[in-house]
Structure formats: C-alpha cells, structure tokens
Structures
1.
Amino acid sequence: MTGGPARPGYDVVVVGGGNAALCAALEARRRGASVLLVEAAPEHLRGGNSRHTRNVRYYHEREDHYLAGSYTEEEFWKDLLQVTGGETDERLARLTIRSSADLGFWMMTNGVRWQPPLQGTLQLSRTNAFFLGGGKALLNAYYRTAARLGVEAVYESPVSDVVAGGEGRGVVLEDGRRVAAKAVVVASGGFEANLEWMAAQWGEAARNFAIRGTPFNRGRPVQALLDKGAKAIGDPKEFHSVAVDARGPQFDGGIVTRLDTVPFGIVVNREGVRFADEGQDFWPKRYASWGGLIARQPGQVAFSLLDSTMAAEFMPSLFPPIEAGSVRELARELGLDPEVVEETVSRFNAAVREGTYDPTALDDCHTAGLDPPKSHWARPLARPPFLAYPLRPGITFTYRCLAVDEGARVLDEAGKPMAGVFAAGEAMAGNILGRGYLAGFGMTIGTVFGRIAGREAAKHALT
Amino acid sequence: MPSPELIQEAERQLTICNACRYCEGYCAVFPAMELRRRFDERDIVYLANLCFECRACYYACPFTPPHDYQLNIPQVLAEVRLQTYAEYTPPRVLSRLFRGNGRLVAFAVAACVLLVLLAAVAVQGSDAVFGEPAAEGSFYQVVPYLAMTLPALALSGYWIWALLAGGLRFWRSTRGSLGDLVDGPSLSKATKDAFGLEYLKGGGEGCTYPDERPSASRRWLHQALVAGILLDFASTTVAAVYHNFLGEDAPYPYLSLPVVLGTAGGALIVGAVLGLAWLKLRADPLPAYRRMLGLDWAFLWLLLLTAATGLVLLALRDTSAMGALLTVHLGIVAALYLALPYSKFAHVVYRYAALVRYRIETARQGRAV
C-alpha cells in the first residue's frame, strides 16, 4: 500500500489516517466515490492520535450490549456545556450528540469489536463504550474494511497544500506530487506535534513539553487552508494537557506516561516549593489542569512526592518511582535543594489536620495555615521509603482549528463554505469542544463528523 | 528460573503494559497482570504460560517496535515459556539439551528407528523383518508383543513422570500448594478454558494468526489435532482391552473399532498438522520468538511422522514392506515419547497449571474474564 497513488485523480481525497479520516473514507466509498486516503505516517504508525484512544461516548436511549442504562441528549449536552464553560457551537454540538445515537452499531458493522462487560477493571459504563483492544485495534479494523471496499491508502505522504475548487483542485504532497480531487476531506488532526509553532506561542517553554500522541500532527493542511482565507476557531496558545512522567519520550508516550499520583502526596517545583492545591477536587476533574500548571513552572517540570503509605493508591505508570530513605536523600536524587524540600515537607506535615482519610470522597483531611493549601486527602509524608515521580506537561491535543458548518464544509472568513473542502476530527473539533475535555468525546466528534464529511464530499464529487 | 536478563526485559514490558491495560479484553494474561503492581520471576513465569500466543495484543499495541517502548509481549512471553520448559521439566540435562532444538529431535528419531530396526533384526532375524509376512499383518512376528508393549509402557511412564514433576515444580513456583488444587469450580472452569481453547479466540473474533486479520482457523486446526490424538489414544486403549481381556490379537479387521478409531485419529492428525504447518509458514515472524519456532516445527514433524507412518503401515500391512514399516513406526513413536516432555507438548501441562492458577486467583479476587 506504500508508494504513490494508483491514479492521478480521485473523487474524494481524505487527508489524514486516524478515526475521522477512516470514517470519512468509508462513508464516501460506500456512496460510490473513488477514495484515496493520504496518511503522513508510515503504515505501522498510521492512525494519528486515534491510536491512543480507548472508548467513545455516544447518546443512547436504551441499554445496549456495550452501554448500561441511557444517556440522553440533554444529559450529554449538559456535560458538554459544563466542561467547555459554554465555548461550544450549540448547533454543531447538538448535531454531534444527536448523530451519535447508537454509534456503536455503525462502528460494529465496520469491524470494530467491543470489550465484553464485567471484565477486567472495567464495569459496563453508561456513557462510554470501550472498544476491544483500544484505538489501534479499531483502526486496524477500519483499514481492513476500507481496503475491502476499495479505498486506496498511501502512507508517508504528508500534505503541504489543499486546493479548493476550480483549476488544480486537490492536494499537494510535501514532496511536490499533486493528487487531483473533486472533494477533499481534511482530517489531519491538530498541530500539537509542531514544536516550532508551539514555540511561537510559548517561547522556550515549548521545548519542555511532551507530546503524548503522534509526531505527525504538524498542522500543515489546516494552516494551508487558514492561509487561503478559511476561518479559524480557537486560541492558538491553548491545548489540553496532563501531567506525565518526565522520563517518558518527547513524542508518542501514549497513555502509559500519565501519572495519577498528585492528589495523594504533594507536588513541588524545581525550586522545591509547592505551587498548587493538590487536593482541590477529585482527580478526574482536576487532572487536565495540571499540565497547564506545570507548564507555568520554571523549567516546565515538577515533582510528585509521596511516602510509602501512598505507594499503591494510583495506577502504576511505565517507570518505577524514584525512592530514597529520607526526604533529603530523595531531593538530592531529584537534583533539588535538600534543605528547601525538607523545609517544604516539614511545613506541610505540620499543617496537616488529619481527619478520616477517604479517597472516594472529598474528605476532611486538609491543611491549615498553608499557602497554597491542600484541601483534601492531606496526610503527612512520614513513612520511608519516600517516592517521587518527575512530571512534565504532556499535550494531548490543540484547540485551534477550521470553522465548519453542519455539512462539515470548511468556512471562509465571511462564513461562506469553501467549495469542495470538508473537515473532520481534531481539524474541526474546536468548534464543538472549544475548551476542556470530555472522555471519549473526541472519538464522537471524529466519527460523527467523519461520516458527515465523507457523505457530503461524495455528494459534492458525484454531482 | 529463566535468565535474569530475560526476566528484567519481561518485567520492563509488563510494567508498561500494566499502565495501559487496553488489551484486557483479549485473554487471561492482562486481567492476571492487573492484579499485580510489580512482577517478580514467579509472576512472569506464570503470566508467560498463561499466554496462548494469539497475538491480538501485538497488533493492538501502539508501542511495538520501532516505537521507543519496544513492546512485543507475545515474543517475550514465548521466550520465557521456552526457558520454563527447559528449566522445569526433569531431568534438566535433557530438557536443556532439547530447548528449541529441532536438530536434536531429528537425531533422536533417526537413532530410535535404527535401534528398533537393529534390535528386531538381531533378535527375530532379517527374514522376519524384511520377508513376506507369515500371516496378514502379523506384527508380533517382527516385534514380539512384550517387546513392543513393555518399552512403550516404560516410555509412557517416563514422559508422564517428567511432565508431572515439571508441572508440580511450576505449580509451586506460582505460589501454589497441593491443597489449592482441591477447588472444584476453579478446576472445572480451567478445564473448560483449556479444552475450549478459550484464549485462542482473541476476545471473540479469533486470533490474529497467521496475520493481523482475526481468524478461527488456528483454533479449529488445533481442536482437530487434539481430537486426532484422543482418537488414537482411544484406539490403543480399545486394542489393549481386546488383547488382554477378550483374547483377540492384532491385526484387527479394517472395520474393527481399534482400526477405525486409529485411522480417523491418524487422518485428523495428518490433516491438522499440515494445516497448522501451512499457517506457520505464512505467519508474521515479528511477534514470534525464533527459537520457540524450532520447538514448534520439531513437534509438528514428530506428530506428522507418527501418524503418517501409522497410516502407511495399516495400508501396507499385508505386504513385505510391513516389517520395515513397523520398525520405523515404532522407532518414531519411541522418539516421540522420549522427546514429549521436552517438546512443544509440554505446553499442555504448564498452560493448564497456569489456567488453574488464574481461575483460583480471580475467584479469590472476586472477578474473572
């Protein structure tokens, strides 16, 4: 499948190789269009950030084989409104939610399999269905189905330009080759892996960011359209990020670098002092803010400190913790000032007002007279060995993207559709999720808008 | 115990896996892994033998080479399994010699065939072996009844002892006591998992073998192979009953129970082995452990030779080739029995023990696949 496209032109060219791209390709091909999928990554790394996903959130009135109970449009909408703080286009958001109805069935007919309920650590969820084997297994299934239907795919083919409508319409690859297309779907993800662009927003700090997903999300196809007058949505400086193990790789560390240690102990920066309330709220509500908090610390690094009583309370990560017999020794191993760290820990320990520790509730273990405070789950770090995990901001995705309408048509500055150009997935998700994060919702947007874009692109190309 | 470097590498990979857990729907290895935060040698040996090498996790993993994490769970667990077979089955001198060593198996086959042939000629004379059979298929003219059955019984006792002793050593290393085995529900579930080849289902659609497309072919071929072996075992047992209790001596008519069972079993084995070999030839080499393949191939050849020579012997039992064929067949069976505890067949014992451990462990934790 590597090598060049078999033909000089296609009805529909899909730029990208992740979930949204595959959904668009499948839908367009089923409507009779000839389809070429152009993926920047080599075949074994295909699939963008969808490789790292695990579940999809969808609206359903009744329980099905993979979801318990019901998850109504209103409840879904309220969840979205809450996480975005209103930074969402209600029309597109409601369209996404409504179109996600019983998405599980469509996914299954295209080869996706679900994790059986009551298995392993997972209970059947009410809001999110878990695909068997995670995102790469889902992608493999979609690629198999696409190949069977006659979708062509080329790899290692990053796109540098998208030409909308008229003469020369189609895409230009970075190596200069052109592929003609009557319609183009841009599903090439965000630009978080483009560290030069990140540096333009964040300066030197960008060097210390870890990019949790694919190194191939460099944003060129989206930028090419913005340069041609497409309307941008979202703040280019904003991204979704979490605290990841600083020892992980700079790119593609995936889920396994994430650390959930923060609420159990304390977190200090490079200077050895605390800088935020580790126990402000439940971790699922707070974990996404810690990437940004650490990004604003000197050197974009922090250290989660724990004692041995807290060692088994969180999901294990890919590296074992750094251990030492005393706080001083631990600080020395971390390259921090032992005096300062010891002072921070003893001040914290002295401020702890111990209550009834309960990690499942906002308990009454808190600090008094400490700034910043630790509002819940505060317990002294007293029993050796002491443990530490170094933390960095790990960027999941960026928000800035192309403005689209309900037909996934890319809009220009004036709000008019650009002829024959459609967008799906992270390339337009910011229209709906302008801020915050909702688990499995990126896959919802990718699947729903992938399908819309594929359908509309085929319609445009074939009429 | 497997080598410290291998244990360290398996521990590294499993620690990364345990922070991800996306594969937990595929088989028992991942739920068992999730019960642990750290992995010592014993955990790794246990998890390795719980793996059926369905390869689903390999194709689902975003961290396989060339990714920095270099995860290849089926491969590293196969390597641990091979070392388990070599380290656990007594006597260790033999099991280490046989480790993934196809050439040694071939040599053993040749040696056994030669030995049986020479013994038959030396004792019975070359006319008895190479001449026309005195009566139709008179096997005992070539190798007398006791000369055939006593060594067979001794060799059976040997391989059964070696495997049970190895299994027991393995059981203890998974922190199991003999008392643990008094657990009817867990044993029956594990037995069902074993005979149903539950973990060659790849979570439902079939395992990703020989390539990334899920397929049930390997599971069904394996079932055919098991059925063939069981039919042949039944044939031998029925023949023994005929001989010892009913006073009916071999050769039995073509439509007698021992011959029908034996022929069906032999045909199933030949067909299944050829099918499995065909899949193996086309199998993606990346998730495989190369030296385990040596063990696989040697065992497939042994099974094929045993079944095929048995069938040919049956077909030509009235001709002058019978004597030579019988000695060749018996020689191959002798080699099979000798190599059995150090062959791929050892997986029957170690995997079954691992499945029992898994059922006991998850019952205690109150959850299971």
2.
Amino acid sequence: MPDRTRVRAIINHEPVDFLCEPRQSLLDCLRDVLGLTGTKCGCNDGNCGACSVLLDGRLVNSCLVLGVEIEGRSVVTVEGLAQWPGARIIQESFVEQDALQCGFCTPGMLIASKALLDRSPRPSEDAIRAWMSGNLCRCTGYERLVRAVQAAADHLATIEGAE
Amino acid sequence: MQAFSYRAPTTLEDAVSILAAAGPAARPLAGGTDLIVQLRHGRRRVDMVIDIKRIREVGALEFTPEGGLVLGAAVPCADVATHADVITHYPALADGAGLIGGAAVRQRATVGGNLCNASPSGDAIPPLIVLGAECRIVGPDGERRAPAAEFCTGPGSTILAPGELVVSLHLPPPQPNTGSCYLRFTPRAEMDIAVVGVAAWVQLDPGDGRIVDARLALGAVGPTPIVAEHAARAVIGLCANEDACAQAEALAIESVNPIDDVRGTEAQRRHVAGVLTRRALRGAIQRAKGESLDA
Amino acid sequence: MATTKTPPKTFAVIGTTPPRVDAGAKVTGAAVYGIDVMLPRMAYGRILRSPHAHARIVRIDTSRAEALPGVVAVATAADLPEAVDRTDRVGEGTVNYRYTRDATFAGDKVLYHGHPICAVAAVTPEAAEDALALIDVEYEPLEPVLDVRGAMEPDAPILHPDLRTRSLAGPGSTPTNVAAHMRFEIGDPDQGMAEADVVVEREFQTATVHQGYMEPHAATAAWSPEGILTIYTTTQGAFDVRTRVHELLHHPLADIRVVPTEVGGAFGGKNTGYTDVAAALLARKAERPVRVVMSREETLMATGPTSGTWMRVTVGARRDGRITAAKAELRYEAGAYPGAPVFSGANCMFASYDIPNGRIDCYDVVVNKPRTGDYRSPGATQSAFAAETVLDEVATCLGMDPIAFRLINCACDGTSRITGGAHEHIGIRQVLEATRDCAHYRAPRPKSDGYLRRGRGVALGFWGNWGARSSVTLSVAEDGTVSLLTGSVDITGTRTSLAMQAAEALGLPLEMLAPAMGDTQTTGHSDSSGGSRTTMATGIAVCRAAEDLLARMEERAAAWWGVDSATVEYARGVFTSSTTGDAMSWAEVAGHQSETGGAIRGHGDVNVRKWGAAYATHIVDVEVDVETGGVRLLRHTVVQDVGRAIHPGQVASQMQGGATQGIGWALYEGYAYDAQGRMLNPNLLDYKMPTYLDVPAIETILVEVPYPGHPYGVRGVGEAPIVAVPAAIAAAIHDAVGVRTTRLPMGATQILQLLGVIDP
C-alpha cells in the first residue's frame, strides 16, 4: 500500500485529522475518507462544478485540489452551509423557485451561490450566469436557478437592511 | 492516477534542491488545474509533486508605475483578472486570465502555470508575449531571465532546464498611449479551450493617431503561440483605423500553422485567426485611445 | 415565465406549486444517490475496458491483478452463465439478453472503444485502479466501421457474423450490419410528388450524442449468506434491473432485491444499467459488498448514447400549401448491437401532419460504437431535425409563414399516420395557434448589426409518450396520514405530482400524503420511469388506489356505525352516514382501524395501453457572427400541450430542461472518433453541454388540452420539449444568414463552409 500522509484541517468549522495518499483529491477525501457525500463527482476534471466547495472562502473544484493541499486550511461543503445564516434562505429559495429536479448539481450550485453572494450581494442576471457557468445543470435549463439566486439576494438584502 | 509523493517546501532554495534531486519524474504544483487532470488521465506520470504555493515569492502581485508588474507564478488567475492595475495597465492579461476555465478554476489556476503548461492554446500566453513579459527562473545553477515570447518550445515543452522553475513574471512599466487586448473564439461562451486566441498591443502617436509600435501573438494556431512579427511590423506607421486592422488580418492568416483536431479545423482556424487579429488590434487601439471596447 | 392556458375546472391541489417533497434532502446534501451508497466492509469495483473499437480477444491474464494487496475479487466472462437468446421490452426499446451478456463482459470480440472485458474489486478505489493496470489482455485488432453508410457498404467490416437483416420479406441470407429494414407507406408517394408544385429534398447527418446526466452510473451489490442479492442502484426501473440480473446470473427473481436510490439525471439513459451485474459478480466472489461507479469518461464512452444518423427527406407541396407527399430514408446507428430507435423516429417525424402519400424506409444498423440507449423521445429529435428543416424550406419556397403552413397541414383526431394508426385526442392545433399568438412570435424580428446577423425560426415536434405498468399502494396510518408507495422511480419530481393526484382524489390536503419509492421486494411490478409516463400512467394507478382506499375507508366507517357501506358518503375529509346523520373525520376513521379490521390500504396496479401524445413548438431567435461562424441564442420560447399541469412549476422546468438539451444537441454536442474508432472527447471539456451562458431565459407556454384517458387529463410532458429544438435553431440560422444547416452539431465550421467563407 502506498504511503499515506496525515492532514489536519478545518472542515465545516470543525477540526479534522485524517490520513490520505497524496494522489487522493480533496473530493476523494471528503467522500471516501470523511463520509461527507453531499459533494458530488460529476466529471473529476474540473468541467462540471458538481464537486464545488469553499477553500479558505474561495470557490474551487475539489476534484482539482489534492487532499494533502488542505493542511492547515478551512473547507466548507454543502453539509456545512447550515452554519451560514443565509443558508436557509438560499435553500428555501431553490425549493420555492423549482431550481432543482434531480438535485445532483444542487450542492455545487449552493456553494457557488454562497461564494457569489459573499462578494456581490446584489448580482445582476449576467453576473450570476457568468459566475456560475462552471456549474453544469442538465435538468433545469438554468433559468430557475438564476431566479433562485436573485430571490435569495433580495431576501438577504432586506434582512441586512433591517439590521 | 499512479501514486506519487508530495512535498511542500517553504523557500525557493528548498524547492530547487528538491526538484533537482528528484529528477525528471517530479513536477512543480501551483493551481493544479492542468497537472492534476493530466495525472488523472494518464497523460503525464510523476513520482513526486512539489507544491510551491507556500513560497513567498510565487504569491507576489505588485505594481508600481516605475517598476511595472511583478506577478508571482502561483497567483490565481482570478486575482490577476480583477486587479485594478492589471485591468488598467495590462488589459490583455486581464482578458486572458479572466477567460481560463470558469470562476472556480480561476481561483486555483495561475498565469505562471498556464505558461509552464505550454499548451498552444493557453490564454495567458499571447498576452504575456505582447506585453513584453519576462520570466524570472531559478534553478540549480542560479537565477536567469527569459522573455515570455521565447519560453514555449512546443506543445508541453519549455526552455526550463532540469531543476528549474518559474518564480515570477515581470511586465515592463506601462507607457503612455498604449493599449492591449486578448480575444479568443470558443464554441461555448466559457469553459472551453480556445480554438483561436489573439493578443494585440499597440502604441499610438498622440498627435497624429498613427501606430508607433505594435505586437501580435496568436494562440492555438501552431505548436507554440506564434509571434506575428511580420503582421505587427506592417501596421507600424499606419493610421490606427480599420484599414490597418485589415492589413494585419491578411498577414496574420499567412503566419499561422493550424491543425485539424477535435476542437477545430485548419481552415476555420486560419480564417478566424485573421478575424480575431483584426478585432484584437481594433480593441488595443480603442484602449490606447482611452475608449472602452465595442460591446 | 410560465403561462398556462387552461380550460376552466376547479381543483384543490392540482395546478398549485407546492415545494417538492424530496427537496429538503437535496438542498442539504443528505440525499443518497447511487454513487453515495456505503455499506460496512464495502469494496470498490472497477471495470477494465477495451482500448480498441473492434478486435478479437486472444488472451486475458488477471493473475498479476489478483496478486495485488488489497484486491478482493476479479470477475470475468467465465463467471457469467451461458447467454439466453431472449428479447424483452425494456424502457422505450427492446433488449436481447444475449447481447446484454456480451455488453457486460465481451465474448471473443470487442465491439467498441470502452467495451467491458472484466472487473476487479479492492479495498480502496485507488487499489482497484492500480489493479486494472495489472490485467494483461492481448488483442488482435480488426478494422472498425464507425458510420452508418460505411456499415451498409457491401465490403464493410462485419460486427456479428450471425446477424441477418430482419424485414417484412423475411430474414436476409448474407452477413450484414443491417439488423432491420422496415418500410412504411401510405397512398402513392411517387404520384403525390408528381402532383406537387414545389419539391424539396435534403440529406442530413447527425452525430452521436449522450443524455449527459450529471450522475454517472453506479451500483452497490451485497449478498446474504442465503443467497439473497440486494442491489442499490441509480436506475429508472428497478424491476428492469432485477430482470436483467436474473437473465444474466440465472438467479431467482424474488431473491434479487433492487433498491432504487435517488437518481442524478437519467433522461432515458438509465433504463439500462452498466454496473449492476459486474457489482453482483464481484460481491459474490469477494463475499463482501462491492460498489461499482463509472467515471465520466466511462459514462460517455461506454453507456448508451443515442444514434448518430444519416437521413434523406423529400417533401412535395402544392402552391396552396397542402403537402401532397413525403418520403424519407432513415439510417440510424444502433451501436454494437441491434436496436436503434429508428422506428420511433419514423413514427414521429411526420406525425404532426395530414399527409396522404408517404413512404419511410428505416434501417437499424450496427457500428463499432456503444449500443444506443433511450434519450428523451428516442429517435424523434433526429428525424424531426430532417423533416422540420425540409418543411421550413417548403414554406419558404411557397412564401408562407411557417406556422400558417403547419396549420394548413396539421393533423387532427382521426388523421392516419404514415407509420400506421390514427391520432386520438391531440392538442396540435391549439399548440400551433398559441405559438402564432404568443408575444415572442408577434414581436418584431431581431435586427442585424454589421457582422452579427439575427433571425427567427420555429419548428414543431411530436412525441407519442407511453403508458405501461405501474403499481401504487396507499396506506392509512392511525393518525390519518397516508403513505403512498410506488414502484415508479422518481427521476423528475413525480413523488410530488403523484402525491398531489392522490391528495386531489382523496379530498385531503397535500401535507397528509407521504410518498416514497419502493423497491422490487415491496412494490408491484412497475415499468421504468420514462417515456413521459409516470405522472400519467402511475397517476392512473394512484387514482385507482385512491378509489380502492376510499371504498375501504367507507366500509370501515360503516362498520364503526353498524350501517351498510352504501349509505356512507365522503367529501373533503369527512364521512357521513346518510341514514343517521353521524359524521366522522378521516383521522377518526383511521384511528379506529384496529377495531374495524386492521390495516387499511388501497391498491392500484395498471397496465396503461392508451395514453395522450404531446406536441411542442420552439421559437428561437439567434445571432450568427458571419465572420467566425459562432451562433448565440437571443430568445427561446417553448409552447407545449401538457394535458393538465399537475404542478405547473415542475412542468415548465421540464420544458426548459428538454429545450436546453436540444440546444446542446443542436449547437455543441457530438461524439468524435479517430480513424481507429477511439472516442476523442469522452470528457466534459470537449463533449460540450450548455452552460448558464449558452442558453437564454427560456420562456414556457403551457397549453392544456386534457387527455380524456387520465382522470385529471394528464399527458406526459417530459420528452416532447427536446424534439423540435435543432430544427428550430436551423430555421433561425436560415432566417439570419440564408443557408440551410443539415449536420448536427451546427458548429462554426459548418456555418463558415455554407457561407462560402472557407472551403468545405
């Protein structure tokens, strides 16, 4: 058996400590080693976004990050979104707008949406489409996803305005 | 993919000595968006991956009007494409870096990596060439500099000797009345590899509007990005107008050496190389005049 | 924006847009798809695949793989019992289990790049991958044939030496790649052409394309010591998986339990499985559960894309717009084994029109590519591309508006089809009129600007839909809540639409329904979810189950009161005795169940043999960059007859999704091969599916012409929205730049060639 490396990182705001081979991607580690199967593998080469996670707050394809690269870093997956106050709003927005059918791309879409709203709280339709063009959906035709992100942005803005 | 070992040095000296000792079966890792895919698809085999992202110098992104731009080899494309000074003074580089992959890929992919991967269609390479970028290279025998225009020697091949790696890219201080632009053709709006990519840079005479200097580089139409010197020289001295752009188009078509592959045909690439040369030169001219590009 | 045009009728639940019942798990990452299944001691399986498109297998040596530490099993063709030569209807096509066995592990020949050879299981996915590299296979490469016309040449390489052409004239006598030839004919097509004032003939080619579901195939198999095999898998039809495993392993049906997981997209491509038998074999040999997951590369290379084709279409019409005759020759690639959807392509291509004279010749042809699978209206999109493009050209020649031309010729109830049968209860005229009258069609045509030429096109598509077998059980718990168990796998949100139909039928609020998918042990036989049948046919089963349940509940209320059940009435959650005037709520009757006879359940098992067809038009505005050949979509509207929209949001979403797949098929997608038959683009970089930036906000107009055969008028909606998209885009390109694109995908090179900018 090839040698394994010890990795210590923060995943979904909790410390983790695991072993992996250098060739195992962050996606492999999340799913096979840590049992966090919410992040999906759609293509394994950075072309579909189903494996999207936040790495130190940046939107990345976890299939293109090695597990050993997250030493000392912080990762947020769809399972960790609940700790973001806006999570429920965006999740409900997806449901209300019928922005999912099979749901396989949904975790990646949610992560990408959070990354977008973190930097751009009132994105235009063009900005949403451009930001999320790396997340493929085969079921919905994207229009309802755009509406869901816009509705979430509007809702979050009213909450922030109220504070 | 086959198993490999992983090292993450924190200094340039350590990186160079590990790389030199490990031999040809070791590869530096920056963003990983090319390397990991190649390893996974069996297009490249390595025994060791050397993660350079912990080294201070490769993360630099600094601009001064006198010194120009220092761009560390491992700075993510997203940071380059959105940097105000890059957008203002080196817009072709912002164009190219902003087209690689999609938003998530750009948070990891790097301009340095795009150059070192030396794909004929790398979107950052033609901009680096026309902007006169230089590479700072370190290796077992010390440090050297080389122009980006000479860096790629074939598909996947570069001038790097065993044990060498690129630390940073250095773009000269911006001159007045200059503009640059990178355009590419892809079937889909994003997420695609360029079928043709063209970067243009011009310097205009502020008085009579003539082209004082010009550079053109074309990607995905030859085994390396092509520096279209003949086409660029032909527009020097001309009025910066559509005729000049059309002249450049005609000469660019003759300068390219495209192939048929799954992404495009030779005839298509040759024709579109001309079209994009005309449009990229027009864009560079507009930016040199301080105008924004046509929609 | 979804607009619904509905005849008036008041429903309590149907027509509303409640949140989907499965949405919560899907927005939190908790939903378990086929690739997510984890069992204790589970090992990981991988399949070794042929690097050649056509080759004889000389020798296989797995000894080095078996010796690798961590490998727990190796399975080969020797582990499969002898094949049974039996054909079955599966999904929207047919299957011969002899070929299924050959597709599971190759026999003496490999027939496509990616053809499975054998499989290994190991304790980690990495060890399984390492083990694959240690399997030695010696091949004798043979010349491949990759296109349908080449395969029909007399000197073409032959895939199956025993294959003879099936046709009405009886089986052929010489080895061939033509599995079947069928001719459909009505009237006198040659005479009809002679009477035409305008005749247009064109030839077409379409590339192989894939359904493109985001979740790859996966199956996890586990054997109990007594020989009960459980398979968790992403599939459209758990019973079809069970049958396949039974046919290949010769294991009793009831000892095979197939549990469908959540499905990450299917579109017909998961009517067949590609991992279940291998997982079962590995698990049996390893004596531990084994999960086999396909990579994206394997999914594109070696599952069931839909046919690449060559077609010729000829249409003749009089100056007044009446079509006098239509002829077509359809040659569809079946892939490595017979069964291309060419007959359904023939069935659909002119089905929208009243054509008195017609002839369609269909050829089902094997080539060295993976065997085709169902893809959303199987076969129809290809033939519609050809037929609708020629019809658009006829309309242009006659100087007629394309919708007006179609209205002159459109079919109605009773119109006979060239392929036989007559239409019943169709909504085509209403769809065409709604298209003509909609905002998009009436808006001024987009203006061109320099090298950006803009235009508009429209096309009409037909899909017949499907009925078949479904099974539903409704059970009432003591608090009155109702569980709905269906054998129909939910691939599109049907759990919700079925629950809505049950709630409507039972007069209860939707919140009291708890739907669930069953497995092959717990539900009655259900054909696969596909063919646009689930909301319709399983909906009928739901209504039958609801009727059955209401009868049982009325009996229980009667028993409680000691009256005749004929005197019990029910409405909106309340039972009343017409003799005593007593009343009891639904929950109260439910609460008394143990005293009145025990569990209360209603069943509906149906085999629906008549169902409503669907029509959909697409209006597309495009922009063509005449210097680069690039095409961009500016605006897109889908108009479809949906019968009755149970959940209008879900229906509109189906229309948008089908339209988006059609856009990919039209402009970007297509399999590319090298001269040796190896697929060049088995990845999502070079097999280009539309992104957010490649499709506009697709507008949807739902026309409701209720289908009388369903209690609420439901027609299937899932498939029709893909059919006419490539033709509509081609028509728009013609309107913009005056050329007819006849090859799919309609990429920049083809457009530049047609414009004369580059040489062909």
